[in-house]
């Protein structure tokens, strides 16, 4: 060991060794530093691009919602309506394709397209659109809403069995805490009654009132539970 190093502390010796390493490997250290800077810049650029793309998709959704709202003020037989409809279809398809149904903008765009089909009484197209959202957004409220609307579409198609299956699926999948559970139970009971299954209809109405009307059972008041209560009176 050199005489000048004998009286150095441990930390000073480590510092000297580090300095020697940096001097001997200066080019390597500079190359690594440049590579790190390049990576950081690339990450920052990627984040900015991603944020811009997300913002563009939400802006596109906002425009689409504006187009959808405008339909209510147009004559369905007018040329303006037809032009607006074509524009809406193109814009919604583009947003769905670019954003994907697993994203909020893409799923909401598909819901709007299905809503428009429903309002135009194109119930099968509406049902298919809702089904795609229900599958892609199964863990969100959009999925629950889509499932309810899909059931309503099949009701309008006259397929009560499929509609009943979907209403029950809402309750079975998302439970009594779902904001759509009371309505789903009510519609299921209503369809049971319509198809001649009075006993199951009554049991479902009673389940609905028990969960969402009776305070001692911890139920939350619901307009559907109140309607179910009225139905039960007529079924006595």
Descriptive overview:
With 236 residues, this protein is an all-alpha fold. It has two domains: 50-158, no CATH class; 161-236. The chain is built from ten helices and no strands. α3 (79-99) packs antiparallel against α4 and α4 packs antiparallel against α5 (123-136).
Please sum up the structure shown:
With 236 residues, this protein is mainly α. The chain is built from 10 helices and no strands. It has helices at residues 10-24, 26-70, 79-99, 104-119, 123-136, 141-156, 160-174, 181-194, 198-212, 223-234.
* Total domain count: 2
SS field, number of helical segments: 10
Order of helices and strands: HHHHHHHHHH
Distance between the termini: 104 Å
Strand residue content: under 5%
Q: Helix/strand-derived class?
A: mainly alpha
Quaternary form? single chain
Q: Helicity level, as a percent range?
A: over 70%
List keywords for this structure.
single chain, 236 residues, mainly alpha, 10 helices, elongated
Write the layout of secondary structure elements.
Elements: H1 10-24, H2 26-70, H3 79-99, H4 104-119, H5 123-136, H6 141-156, H7 160-174, H8 181-194, H9 198-212, H10 223-234
């Amino acid at each position: 060991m050199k005489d000048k190093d004998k009286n150095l502390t441990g930390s000073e010796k480590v510092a000297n060794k580090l300095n020697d390493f940096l001097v001997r490997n200066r080019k390597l250290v500079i190359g690594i530093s440049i590579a790190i800077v390049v990576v950081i810049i690339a990450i920052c650029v990627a984040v900015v691009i991603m944020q811009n793309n997300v913002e563009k998709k939400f802006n596109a959704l906002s425009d689409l919602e504006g187009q959808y709202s405008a339909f209510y003020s147009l004559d369905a037989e007018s040329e303006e309506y037809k032009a607006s409809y074509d524009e809406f279809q193109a814009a919604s398809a583009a947003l769905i394709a670019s954003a994907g149904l697993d994203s909020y903008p893409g799923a909401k765009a598909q819901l709007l397209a299905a809503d428009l089909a429903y309002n135009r009484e194109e119930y099968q197209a509406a049902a298919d659109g809702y089904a795609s959202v229900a599958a892609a957004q199964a863990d969100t409220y959009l999925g629950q809403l889509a499932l309810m609307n899909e059931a309503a579409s099949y009701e309008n198609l006259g397929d009560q069995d499929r509609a009943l299956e979907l209403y029950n699926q809402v309750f079975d999948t998302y439970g009594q805490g779902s904001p759509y559970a009371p309505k789903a139970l009510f519609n299921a009971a209503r369809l049971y009654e319509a198809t001649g299954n009075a006993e199951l209809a009554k049991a479902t109405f009673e389940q609905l009132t028990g969960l969402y009307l009776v305070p001692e059972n911890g139920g939350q008041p619901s307009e559907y539970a109140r309607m179910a209560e009225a139905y039960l009176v007529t079924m006595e």
